[in-house]
Design goal:
alpha+beta; Arc Repressor Mutant, subunit A; two-stranded antiparallel ribbon; ArsR family transcriptional regulator; WH_DNA-bd_sf; ArsR-like_HTH
């Protein structure tokens, strides 16, 4: 339940969803691993010690909640795959007599020029 009496049901559902997601060990590992740079599901799978199918499910839930973003990665062989990066820097949960409120400190969106440079450097 959101502590904001003027909040909407959607905001309360968002708070519950975030708290639920953060209760998962794999989710926390994914967010930590992708904080500095995007990572592939295979890399995240190794970091979590879990099957890629398990990590794909967590990644999809995180993307739907807006906590993870995907990036298309091109390798020199001409293959492409997705990498995922955390879309937030911090989560604060405030508890008060009316319930709780979740506050997200989102990471700034990547500048298109920076993204182009990152993609171009991936070809080298």
């Amino acid at each position: 339940m959101s502590g904001d009496a003027g909040g909407t049901e959607r905001a309360a559902a968002d708070d519950e969803e975030v708290v639920d997601l953060l209760g998962d060990d794999y989710v926390r590992t994914i967010l930590v691993e992708t904080r500095e740079e995007p990572k592939s599901v295979d890399t995240l799978s190794a970091a979590c010690g879990a099957d890629p199918s398990t990590i794909y499910r967590r990644v999809e839930r995180l993307r739907e909640a807006g906590l993870l973003v995907s990036h298309q990665r091109l390798d020199p062989d001409g293959h492409h795959y997705k990498e995922y990066g955390a879309a937030l820097r911090a989560v604060t949960v405030r508890i008060d007599p009316d319930g709780y409120e979740v506050e997200l400190d989102r990471a700034p969106e990547e500048d298109p020029a920076d993204r182009f440079t990152r993609l171009y450097e991936g070809f080298k």
